[in-house]
Amino acid sequence: MAKRRKSIYECQAFLNLKELAENPFDMTVEGALDSERLETFVCKGIEFDLLYGCQRVTTDVLDCLQSLADECGLVGQYEEMRAGAVMNRIERYPSEERQVLHTACRDVFSKTAANDAAVIQVKRELAKLQEFLAEIDNGKIRNTAGETFTSLIHVGIGGSDLGPRSIYEALKAYGRKDRKVYFVSNVDPDDSAAVLDRVDLSKTLVLVVSKSGSTLETLSNESLVRNALKEAGLDPARHCLAVTGESSPMDNHERYLRSFYMFDYIGGRFSSTSMVGAVTLGFALGYNQVLEFLKGAWLMDEAAAERNIRGNIPLLLAMLGVWNHNFLAMDTVAILPYSQGLHRFPAHLQQCDMESNGKSVQRNGEPVRYKSGPIVWGEPGTNGQHAFYQLLHQGTEKVAVEFIGFRKSQRNRDMCIQGSNSQQKLLANLLAQSLALAVGREDENPNKNFAGNRSNVILMGERLTPKSMGALLALYEAKIVFQGFCWNVNSFDQEGVQLGKVLADEILGAMAEKRNGKTLAEALLAVAGIS
Ligand SMILES: O=P(O)(O)OC[C@H]1O[C@](O)(CO)[C@@H](O)[C@@H]1O
C-alpha cells in the first residue's frame, strides 16, 4: 500500500509559518541588515555559496521551514527517488507510473550507485559517446569527401533543446576552436532556414533529439534539414545522429549514423545530463569536459541528501521559495544571472520549474488548495537593470529574486577602466541590486521612494566552468523536485501541454481539407484569415 503523503496545510509547521508570516523580518529597519546577519545567513556548498541575509526570515522562520521539510519528508522522498521509486504517478488515476532517475545520469562516480540497473544503462551510453567522439577525432568518422566534421546542428525542442542549448552557451568559452554548434527548435521555418544558410552541410553532423521520437516540431525540422542535405548531394544517413527513447519511432539505425538512448525514467526537462545534453557538449568541448560537468552535478546530488536545510543549498533555496510564495504572496521568481554565459539558463529553468510544478492536482488525486509552482522568468544582469528592474524596485508586484554570480570571469579578457575592471563593475552591480532591493531608501518624494523588503538571494560561485555548471543545474533540479514534494504535486508529468497539441492537429486537418467555420477551431482559423 502506497504511503499517504501529507499536504503542506496538514503540517503543524504550516500553521506556525502562517503566524510568523504576519510579521516577517523587516530589512528596512535601521541596523536590521548588519554584517553579522549577512555573515550568518550563508550556506556553503558544492561550487556555490548561498547568501540569504536579504530574505525576510528569522531563525524562527528557518526552524519552521526545517520542520516543514521534515514533516513532508522531503529528503527521504528525494532519496527514494534516487533509488528508483515510482515517483511519477497520481494515485487512483491513470498516470505515467514511472521511476524518476535523471540523477542516475551522473551517479557514475559513486562506489555504490543508488540504482544499479539505471547506472549500467547510463554507463553503456557514455561508453558509446566516448567511442563516437574518439572516432571523429581520429578520423575514423569522416564525410564522403574524407573531411572531418566541424559543425553540429542540434535539432530538438523543450527539454530536448533548452537544457543543452543553455549549457552549451554557458560553456562555449571552453569549446574547441575548430568546432561550431547550432540549434534549431522552432517549427517556424525561418529558424532552420537561418541555420542552414550559415553552415557548410558537407562538414555538418545533425543531431536529432527527441525522447518520444514523435514531436511535431522536431520531426518537421529534421525533414527540412534532411531535405537540405539531399539537395546538397549528401546522404542524410551519413550525417544524422539520433538521441531518442529505445524503440521510439526514431529508433531506426538505418536512418542514423549513430543512435544514443535515453530512458523512460529520465524526464525531458531533467534530461540535460543524459545523452540529450552530453552528445552536443561532447562534440563542442570533448569527452573529459562532459565528465567534469557530470561530476559537478553528481556532487550536488550527493549534497542535496543532507537533512539540515542550513547545510543543503537546494533544500534551503526550495524552502525559502515556499516561504516567499506560500506565505509572503510572491507569485513570481526572477532568476538573474550576472554572467553572460548563463543568458539562456533562465529559459531552461522556466521549463524545468513551470512544466514540473505548474500543477493543480496533488499526487493523491485531490485538488491543490494552496499555491503550487510560481511563474519563473529572468534575464542576465546588468542588461535587465536597464529593462525591467524598475518593477522589481518600485512595482506593486513583489518578485522573489535569485541572483547568480561568479567571482571570476570565464575568459579573463578584461581591463581597468576608470578605476575598476568590467568584472568588478558586474559584481558591484549585483551586490548593489541585492542591497537596494532589501533595504530600500526613503525619500519624501514618493516617486523616488524605495520601499525595500524585496527578498532576494545570491548564489555565488568562483567561475562558470563545466563542473560548476553541472552543480548549478543539479542544484536547481533538486530545488524543483523538493518544492514539488512539498506541494505534493507530481513534478514529472506534463498533461497540460496536450490539449493545445490536439487542437493544433485539428486545425491542421481543417487547413488540409479547406474546412472552415464548423468547429470553434475552424471558426478561429477563418477569423484569423489563414488559408
Ligand atoms: O523530447 P521530445 O519527446 O521531442 O519532447 C520535447 C518536449 O515536449 C514536451 O513533451 C512538452 O510538449 C516536453 O516535456 C519535452 O521536453
UniProtKB/TrEMBL annotation:
<keyword id="KW-0413">Isomerase</keyword>
<dbReference type="GO" id="GO:0005829">
    <property type="term" value="C:cytosol"/>
</dbReference>
<keyword id="KW-0324">Glycolysis</keyword>
<feature type="active site">
    <location>
        <position position="501"/>
    </location>
</feature>
<keyword id="KW-0963">Cytoplasm</keyword>
<dbReference type="GO" id="GO:0097367">
    <property type="term" value="F:carbohydrate derivative binding"/>
</dbReference>
<comment type="function">
    <text>Catalyzes the reversible isomerization of glucose-6-phosphate to fructose-6-phosphate.</text>
</comment>
<dbReference type="InterPro" id="IPR018189">
    <property type="entry name" value="Phosphoglucose_isomerase_CS"/>
</dbReference>
<comment type="similarity">
    <text>Belongs to the GPI family.</text>
</comment>
<comment type="pathway">
    <text>Carbohydrate degradation; glycolysis; D-glyceraldehyde 3-phosphate and glycerone phosphate from D-glucose: step 2/4.</text>
</comment>
<dbReference type="GO" id="GO:0048029">
    <property type="term" value="F:monosaccharide binding"/>
</dbReference>
<dbReference type="InterPro" id="IPR046348">
    <property type="entry name" value="SIS_dom_sf"/>
</dbReference>
<dbReference type="GO" id="GO:0051156">
    <property type="term" value="P:glucose 6-phosphate metabolic process"/>
</dbReference>
<dbReference type="InterPro" id="IPR001672">
    <property type="entry name" value="G6P_Isomerase"/>
</dbReference>
<comment type="pathway">
    <text>Carbohydrate biosynthesis; gluconeogenesis.</text>
</comment>
<dbReference type="InterPro" id="IPR023096">
    <property type="entry name" value="G6P_Isomerase_C"/>
</dbReference>
<feature type="active site">
    <location>
        <position position="386"/>
    </location>
</feature>
<dbReference type="InterPro" id="IPR035476">
    <property type="entry name" value="SIS_PGI_1"/>
</dbReference>
<dbReference type="GO" id="GO:0006096">
    <property type="term" value="P:glycolytic process"/>
</dbReference>
<keyword id="KW-0312">Gluconeogenesis</keyword>
<feature type="active site" description="Proton donor">
    <location>
        <position position="355"/>
    </location>
</feature>
<dbReference type="Pfam" id="PF00342">
    <property type="entry name" value="PGI"/>
</dbReference>
<protein>
    <recommendedName>
        <fullName>Glucose-6-phosphate isomerase</fullName>
        <ecNumber>5.3.1.9</ecNumber>
    </recommendedName>
</protein>
<dbReference type="GO" id="GO:0004347">
    <property type="term" value="F:glucose-6-phosphate isomerase activity"/>
</dbReference>
<dbReference type="InterPro" id="IPR035482">
    <property type="entry name" value="SIS_PGI_2"/>
</dbReference>
<dbReference type="GO" id="GO:0006094">
    <property type="term" value="P:gluconeogenesis"/>
</dbReference>
